[in-house]
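Our collaborator T.R. sent over the components below with a one-line note: 'Predict the complex.' Nothing else. No constraints on interfaces, no templates requested, no preferences about which chain binds where. So this is a plain run: every listed entity goes in together, and whatever single assembly comes back becomes the starting point for the next discussion.
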Amino acid sequence: MGLRRYLANKTVWYLGALLVAVVLNFLLPRVIPGNPVDVIVSRMGQGGQSSEAQARVYEQFMREFGLDQPLWSQFVTYVTSAFQGNLGASFSFYPTPVAELIAQSLPYTLVLQLPAIILGWIIGNVLGAVAAYKGGSWDKSVFTTSLLFSSMPYYCLSIILLYTLAVVLGWFPPGGAYSLGMSPEWSWEFFSDALQFWWLPFISLLVINIGGQAVGMRSMAIYELGSDYVNYSRSLGIGDRKMTTYIFNNAMLPQITGLALSIGTMVGGALITELVFSYPGMGSLLFNAIASNDYPVVQAVTLIITVAVLVANYAVEILYGFIDPRIRASKSGEK
Amino acid sequence: MTNIQSSAVAAETEGPLLPPEPSTPKAKAKPAWRSLNFGPRLWVSAGLIVIIALLAFVGPLFYPFAPDEKVGSLYDGPSAEHILGTENFGYDVLAVLMASTRNSLINGLLAGTLAVVIGVFIGILAGYIGGWLEELLMGMTNIVLAIPSIVILILISISLQSTDIPFLKGIVGLALVIGITSWPWTARAVRAQASSVATREHIDVAKLSGARTGGILIFDVLPYLASYVVMAWVLQLASAILAESTLSMLGLGPSGTNSLGMQLHWALAFQAVATGAWWAFLPPTIVLTLISFALLYLQSSLDEVFNPRLRRGKKKHLAQAAARRAEAAKQLAEQNQRAEVTA
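Returned assembly:
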C-alpha cells in the first residue's frame, strides 16, 4: 500500500469516527425522555413562575434551539452552526454564547496541562531509561514509585496535595485561579498573582505524568536491552555510551506517539483536578453545566474533547506514515 | 468433544498419545502452578486486594453502624465510638466507606466483566473468522476507540439521570454504561492474538475432525488467549472503578447510593478539604488509590509471569540455567563419543 493510499485510508477512517462522534454528541442528550427544554421549564416551574411566562420561555427556547423541527433538520442545523464556531447559547447563562464560556475556560486548562504534559514527559522518560539501564535497587525504587503515581487516580493525588500543602502547611492558596478582587487581564500583576494559584494543580498533574511516562519508558527500554541487536553490538565491543543512544532512539518512537496522544487528551484529561482546586477550566465548566442541566455547554465541552483527541490521533497516524517505512511497505494498515 | 476428536487425529499423525500423567507424582514434584514463577509483587498486590475486599464485604458484618444511620452532625471529628468521625450528612464515615468500597468493587466487577466479555467475543470472531466480518468489526472497534470513552460516558449518564427505570439509576446502570463503552481495547488485543492462533496447526486438525466453529473458538482458540484475557480483565476492573469515581465526581454518579466516587463528590461539595475535615475525604481517596495501585501492580506482575521477555532474570537463575545447559551439553558430547566408539 503506497503512502497516498495509506493517508487516504486513515483520513476516511477518522472522518468516519468524527461523524459518529458528532452524531452521538447530538443524539444522546436528545434521546432523553422529554427534551432538555422540558427539563429546564419544569425546573423554572418549581421556582414558582406563572404558567404564561413559562409558556413564553418554552416557545422561545423551542425556536432558539430548533427543537420543534424534525430530528434530521435539527442535526443539519447543529452541524452547520458548529462548523461556523457557533455552539449555541447556554441555558443557564442565557443568552451568553457557549463559545464565549469555552473561550473563558479553555486557557486555564491549557496553561495547566500543556507544561505538565511536556515537562512530565521529559523527566519521566529520563527517569525510566535510567531505571531500566541501571537496574537493581535504583530500578526497583523508581519503578515502584512511578507505578504508584501513575496508577493513582490523578485527582486522588490532587486531593492529598491540596490538603497537605495548602490547607495544613499553607504554602499555597487553597484553590481558585487568582485572588479575590483580581480580574483576568493582561497585566504583570495578574500573572504573578495567578502563578501562585497555578503551582499546586500543576505539580499534581506533573507528578502523575512523570510516573506514567517513566513506567512506559522503563518497559520499552528493558525490551530493547534484551533484544538481539543489543547483544550483537555488545559482543562487537561497542561501548555503553554508544549503546545507550541506540537503545534510546529505538525506545523513543512509541514515546513520541505517547506525547502526541497525551497532548490530544489535554482538554479532557484533568477535569477532576480542576474541580478539586476549583480551577476555572473546562472541568469546572463541565461540572457546573452538568449540575444545571446546561446541555449546550455539556455538548460543546464533549465535542471539543472529542475533536482534540481525534486530531491528535490522526496527526500521529499521518506522521507515522511519513516516518515509519514499514507502514508504507505493509499490505494493510493497522487494524 | 472437540478436544478428544482433534487429539485423536493428532495421535494418528504424530504417533501414539503421550501417556497420561503418572497417577502417583514424584515425592518432590511441585504442583503445576508453582512453576509459574509468581514474584513477590504478585503476592503484595493480591494481598492488598484481599484486604480491601474483606473491608468491603466482611467489615459491615462486624461494624455496629449502618451507612444510612444518622449518628452525628456535619463533620464530627474521629472519636472512640466513631473511629473516622462523621461525614456531611452525619453518617459514620467508616460505615459509608465500607458500603462505598463494596459498591465500587461490585461496579468494577460488573463493568469489567461485561467489557471483557464483549471485547473477547468481538475480538475472537474478528480474528478467527477474518474476511469482511473482521473488516466490519474492527472498523467499528476503531471508531469507538477513537472517540474518548469519557465523552460517551458523560453523554449516556446524563441521559440515564432522567430515566424513570430505577434499576438503571443505581450502580448497575452505571456499570452497564461503563462496560459497553470500554471494550474496544480488549477487542483489539484479542483480535491480534486470535488471528495468530487461527493460523496454527491444531486449528486445522480441529477443522479436519469436523469440529464446529463455535467449538473451535471455545476449546481451541480461547485457551491460548487465556493469559491476555485475565490481564485485560484486571485492567478493565481498575479502569471501571476509576471511571465510576470520575463520573460521580462530575455529578453523574449513581443517585442515592454509596460509592467511592460519590463519597468524594459529597466531601468536595461540602468543602471537607478546605475545612480540614480529613476523615471525610482521605479514607475514600486512600482506598481508591490502593485499589487502583493493587490492580495495576497485579496486572504488571501477571504480565511478567506470562511474558518472560519482560522479566529480568535473576543473575543466580541465569547462572544455574547456564550450568544446567553446560552439563547437558557435556553429557550429549559423551554420548556421541560413546556412540562413535561403538560404531
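Summary for T.R.: DSSP finds 14 helices and no strands in chain A.
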